[in-house]
Structure formats: C-alpha cells, structure tokens
Amino acid sequence: MLLLCVLLLGSGPAAAEGVELSVLSYNTHGLPSLLVRDAPTRRFPEIARQIGRYDVALLQEDFAHHELLQQHLDATAGVRVVATGNPSRSSWCPICSGSGLTLVSRLPESAWSRIDAQPYGLCSGWLGGASDCFATKGFLRARLALEGGLQIDFVETHLDASDGEGDRVVRHHQLEALRRALGERAGDAALIVVGDFNLDAGDARDVRERRAFTSALGLANSGAAASAGSSWERLDYIFYRSGQRTQLAVIEASEDEGFTLKGKPLSDHPAIQARFRASPTPR
C-alpha cells in the first residue's frame, strides 16, 4: 500500500518498480429479500466491511440492497462507489433491475476516468432459464490512471445464466458484444476483466466459449478461483493482459474465505481475489 500511495502522489523510483493492486470480484447475491432464503440486510453490512480491504472491488448482483451497501461503505474511511452499471431497460416493470454491477475503490476518486456502462440489449428467460430478463445485464468499464503513465482499464460483467440452448446463444452474443466493445475502446490498454461469466469450468462447451473470448482479446486467466475441495461452481473469473504502457503480473490469486458471517458464506458465489503488480512495460 505504501508503494501505491507514493505512485499516486508522484513519480520516481516507485513508478519504475511498480505498484501492487488488490482486486476482488464478487457476486453478492443481492436479490430482493422475498426471493432469497437468507437475510440480505444482515449480509450486506458485512460485505461492505470486507470489500473495504481491497484497492478495487467489482461487484455483481448489487440489485436490491445497494443503498444499504452504500450506507455502510460511507462509514469506512476512504472507500467509495466509483461507478454503477446501466439502469433497467424496463421502466414499466417495478421488479426489474439494471445490470447490478458496482465498482468500489479505496483509491483517490481523481484516479478514475472514462467510465462507461453499457447494456447488452438481449436476454434469455422471463419465467425460465434463471429469469435473466428481469435484469438488464451489461458491462461496466473504468480506467485507472496512475503516475508514471500507468493505466489499467477495469471491466466487469455478469452474463446470462443457465445452460439451455437459448441461454447459451444469448451468452455467446453477450461475450461477442463485450469483445467488440473492448476491441474498439480499450485499444492497447492493460486490462483486468472480471465477473460472473456463468461459464462453467467443468463444461466443455463453456470452456471453449471462454477460451475463444480470452484468446481474441489476449487475456490470461489470473487463476483466481474457489479453494480446492470446495463445492462452489467455477463461474467467476479474473482475466488480465498487459498493455503498451503498463505491464501486469499476478502475485497471487485465490478465494477470500473471509466473506462469511457466523460461519456461513455471505453469498451463493465465492469471493475471488487477485493481487497484481503493475509496472511500466519494458521498452
């Protein structure tokens, strides 16, 4: 963290050595209380407390309890919501939501720019296929600029769920839309792309879909995943690539097992995290 503060405040030896960044990706299971079998009003204050440990936290399914999350983030010094995702496309539907994407950071607000939230424009399932159409899923992108010319584009998404043929088709088109957008807008920037991709690491078709997406953008898998021996499905990923100005290297990646309350998980997804070193790309 000392390196980070020095790098944000000015260039010098720290800029050449690089800086460590801690990154969290977490599906918060933020559905309305009536639709879940737990108590989100008890979970979300603890989620807010836990994510304050990260330089950058990218959340999915931050649907019905965002104000509660915001309230408890405000009580954590220096931690703030940088951006939220696109709103609902269905103004006529009182129980519909936007993308549920939220970017939280303890880095200075001035370090963030080029914030962009885009809906995908298609979905699969109102009363079946995980009922994804009640949310307007999309992606959220923001650029982190540090002294010394270091830049990283952070991108998060939450794709359609379920494994029906219609769900797979929609998920493919969503990935294609994200790939095109990043190809057009990210240029040669370093990228960290995270989220609940609903691509099962144990499903051969999903693995091919994931590899096609990452290969097209030159992304590597950080290795962030649930702890070995756990019962979590592997649907959540943290991908990355270096850019023309900024080189990224993974220091370590894992599940953060601290996201529990009274011994129970705070969500129905694991909290996955990676620590990166960002440094100038060698010339």
Task: Explain the overall architecture.
The structure is a single chain. The chain is α+β, with helices and mostly antiparallel strands. It has one domain (18-278): Endonuclease/exonuclease/phosphatase (Deoxyribonuclease I, Chain A), CATH 3.60.10. The protein has six helices and 14 strands. It has helices spanning 2-9, 13-17, 40-51, 66-74, 165-185, 204-217, and strands at 19-27, 56-60, 80-84, 102-105, 112-119, 138-146, 150-158, 190-196, 220-221, 236-241, 246-255, 260-261, 264-265, 272-280. Helix 3 (40-51) crosses helix 4 and helix 5 packs parallel to helix 6 (204-217).
Please tell me the total number of domains: 1
Low-confidence stretches: 5-14
CATH superfamily: Endonuclease/exonuclease/phosphatase
Assembly type: single chain
Strand fraction equals 25-35%
Give the strand order, joined by hyphens, for the main sheet. Answer: 3-4-2-1-14-11
Q: CATH topology, anyone? A: Deoxyribonuclease I, Chain A
The CATH architecture designation is 4-Layer Sandwich
Derived from helix and strand composition plus strand pairing, the structural class reads: alpha+beta
Helix content percent band = 10-25%
